[in-house]
Amino acid sequence: MTWFELTHKMKTGFDVALFVGSGYVWQYHNDYLGFYWDKPYYYVYNLYSFTVKKDFTIKNHHLIPGGGLSYRSARETYADYDLGNDGDDILYSYPMVVNAHFQDLGIILNFDYQYSFTPNISIGCRFMGHIPMNIGLENIMISPLISLRM
What we know:
Elements: E1 2-9, E2 14-28, E3 40-54, E4 56-58, E5 61-80, E6 83-86, E7 89-92, E8 96-116, E9 121-132, E10 139-148
Antiparallel strand pairs: 1-2, 2-3, 3-5, 4-5, 5-8, 6-7, 8-9, 9-10
């Protein structure tokens, strides 16, 4: 997943952030009958969130817990079959390529650790969980990060 976040420091000591993340996975269909053998399966995942964070600093170490609301959009395509059993014979239907698109709202929980080299440049690691409203905890992301403060 590729992601970008824009953060603004409030006078209250809290930070508000806009997060944009996008992921893309593809592979070729495993089509047993050969109809769609060269057609790619793909899954496109977009995640947008608005979070509130608090920066706790000890010397050059920053511990930043946060949370907020998210909007997720995902699109996938795949070959689908109906399989059946008629006595000794296995029945296949002709395959069709299914295009599915879904959207939902959720909650983002994240925790960042950053080490500052200068007041404006730091590196660190982000731990993030996405909890869609309809199914519970779905995604856990562990990602390195580079922070540039201006």
